[in-house]
Amino acid sequence: MQIAIQQGKNCPSVDGAYNVGAVITVNGQFATFGYSRQVPGNTHAEENALNALLAKHPKKEYLENVVLYTTMEPCSTRTSGKKSCTDIILECGFISKIFYCVDEPPLFVDCVGKEILVGAGIPVIQIPQLINDCKKLNSHLFN
């Protein structure tokens, strides 16, 4: 999760957008990372990390025990109208577990990503010890 927090620090701060970092491991080994707005087009951290993983494994070969670490709960609604991170995670079909720190605050939309993912059978585990570190990534929105 520390790598995800470091990735979140790479986000250009924008009013009206969260700074989020994400890391994906495969079989316990680091595979890819992503952060918000890493790629043009209002992209999200989880989306960028998953796209990077699929670029390495376009046929999804060897994708077992895939774990996502993200500094914030995956979104379930995007104000841009783009596909949510929750939907992207469910569609890829290979994420076996998700660790996150901060629940998505209802600043822009109501988020039910955790509930949807758990309902789909994916364990979603909060890491409360790092909540303050993850909240600092978004101090531009809460000052």
TrEMBL record:
<feature type="domain" description="CMP/dCMP-type deaminase">
    <location>
        <begin position="1"/>
        <end position="115"/>
    </location>
</feature>
<dbReference type="GO" id="GO:0003824">
    <property type="term" value="F:catalytic activity"/>
</dbReference>
<protein>
    <recommendedName>
        <fullName>CMP/dCMP-type deaminase domain-containing protein</fullName>
    </recommendedName>
</protein>
<dbReference type="InterPro" id="IPR016193">
    <property type="entry name" value="Cytidine_deaminase-like"/>
</dbReference>
<dbReference type="InterPro" id="IPR002125">
    <property type="entry name" value="CMP_dCMP_dom"/>
</dbReference>
<dbReference type="GO" id="GO:0006139">
    <property type="term" value="P:nucleobase-containing compound metabolic process"/>
</dbReference>
<dbReference type="Pfam" id="PF18785">
    <property type="entry name" value="Inv-AAD"/>
</dbReference>
